[in-house]
Write a structure and sequence with these properties.
With 251 residues, this protein is of the alpha/beta class. It has a single domain, classed as Rossmann fold (3-Layer(aba) Sandwich), CATH 3.40.50.300. It is built from 11 helices and 7 strands. The longest helix is centred in the middle third of the chain and has 20 residues, at 149-168. The two termini are 14 Å apart.
């Protein structure tokens, strides 16, 4: 299970979650995308509106349906979705009243684990119950990153949260890597790392990076992964490279 994490809004978590899941599916890896954010951006980017859903993750957390009953097929043969809606906010408000409920998502996802090779979890941009829940559910974190000093502070804060989750809920949680996005070149990334005294971080930076590409934005507005919008676009090719690197690293 891989959670896409980051504490700053607009850093590309949902876009990364949807397009990584879609790219893994295109490589014929059975993949479940789990939307753990009440804003439901991943759900929308995957082609589902709240009004079209009979149930979602909140229904599972409230115990109304089994996890398998809240999974929906997407337009990609190997990609399924466990969607979110604003009801997830109400579920979190209630569940957060009892200590230990941060483990609940991991417990429910165990029931589905045998059916998928990869589970990609989209987490909220906040220090909230749902963020801790998404981190506690994961074995690995993938962190979207941009060539911005602001992202350095964001990453430092995330590391504090990782230590908290390791100590209290999931001691095996590890960082799979930093994925730079909206970058022009690898040289730009290397200059940023060197110029901000981040030379020790390059060991966890993915070799692949996602360039700025209008097709990614347009695909999200159209409610689909970029590979289904324009498979030849730089963004689509980049996410396929990222998926291959993820597969290689876990193998």
């Amino acid at each position: 299970m891989i959670t896409i994490a980051g504490q700053k809004g607009g850093n590309g978590r949902s876009v990364t979650a949807v397009n990584l899941a879609a790219s893994l599916a295109l490589l014929e890896k059975r993949t479940l995308l789990v939307d753990c954010d009440p804003r439901a951006c991943s759900t929308l980017f995957a082609g589902f509106g709240a009004s079209t859903l009979s149930c979602d993750l909140s229904s599972v957390l409230f115990g109304k349906v089994a996890p398998s009953d809240a999974v929906f097929k997407t337009r990609l043969r190997f990609m399924d979705l466990l969607p979110a809606s604003f009801n997830l906010f109400h579920a979190a408000s209630r569940l957060s009243l009892n200590a230990g409920n941060e483990r609940i998502l991991r417990i429910f996802l165990r029931e589905l684990r045998a059916e998928y090779e990869y589970m990609i979890i989209d987490s909220p941009a906040s220090y909230s119950f749902l963020t801790v829940t998404a981190l506690a559910a994961a074995d690995w974190l993938l962190v979207p990153f941009q060539c911005s000093p602001e992202d350095i502070g964001d990453f430092t804060s995330l590391l504090r949260m990782v230590r908290h989750v390791r100590s209290n809920f999931q001691e095996r949680l590890k960082i799979a890597g930093l994925l730079f996005n909206r970058c022009g070149s690898r040289e730009e990334i290397d200059r940023f790392l060197a110029g901000n005294d981040l030379n020790g971080v390059e060991n966890i930076v993915y070799k692949s990076f996602v360039p700025g590409d209008d097709a990614i934005r347009a695909a999200g507005e159209d409610g689909k992964p970029v590979a289904l919008y324009d498979v030849e676009s730089p963004g689509a090719r980049a996410y396929l490279d990222v998926a291959k690197e993820v597969i290689s690293s876990f193998n």
